[in-house]
């Protein structure tokens, strides 16, 4: 199992911002002796344009945007390209992308929720396989849904806390299946909902699973907790592994740095990738 990483993605920060380099640094230090690591490389402009508009890239390059949660950090275009490129490598290698910034709130032409480029969407578009995206972040992946709604090559499933930012994902539509859950619902409710969600998917024709692997649903997380234990992430992995499809995963949220590495390890063990 390969984890895709770049220390470049630890170089930007804002005081007090929850999406900090410390969270990923701690995860890296926990996982480095447990998995094989490979270096991330930036996504090409052509790959990014499979998902995002030219105007979006222009604004990102030139810092011509304002989002309170997603500051125009120096060199953020470079870091976002590395994170998107790591997602592509993870998809090709059936691995895990341990980079930042995350991506699932970024739309075709919108920056939001700590996200600048939609990493998982870029990777899925690049591979051009029929894909089931399972979003386990505590927040709804509104950007990913908006990009893929109506796309016959993608099925999107999200389990997320509601009410909570971004306030979307209250209903299912077309090929996008949403399961809003109350805060601190706990392992039993969450895992039963996941089984229901995966059991309702028509697997015929699907070629791979892509996981938007957010860990802010963990019981210790202050942003989006659904009360999940470490062991829940192993069981999430086991449920997805039962689908019998190739899997890759992209880091989204998860803001308790001490728990992020162990939770990633549990997910990957459940997937049978360790």
What do you see in this structure?
The chain has 274 residues and is of the alpha/beta class. It has one domain: Histone deacetylase domain (Arginase, Chain A, 3-Layer(aba) Sandwich). The chain has helices at residues 21-31, 45-48, 54-62, 76-93, 119-127, 142-148, 186-199, 230-241, 257-271, and strands at residues 2-5, 36-39, 96-97, 131-135, 154-161, 176-181, 208-213, 247-251. Strands 2-1-3-8-7-4-5-6 form an eight-stranded parallel beta sheet, sandwiched between helices. Helix 8 links the parallel strand 7 (208-213) and strand 8. The termini are close together. The model has no long low-confidence stretch (mean pLDDT 97).
Provide a short characterization of the protein structure.
With about 270 residues, the protein is of the alpha/beta class. It contains 9 helices and 8 strands.
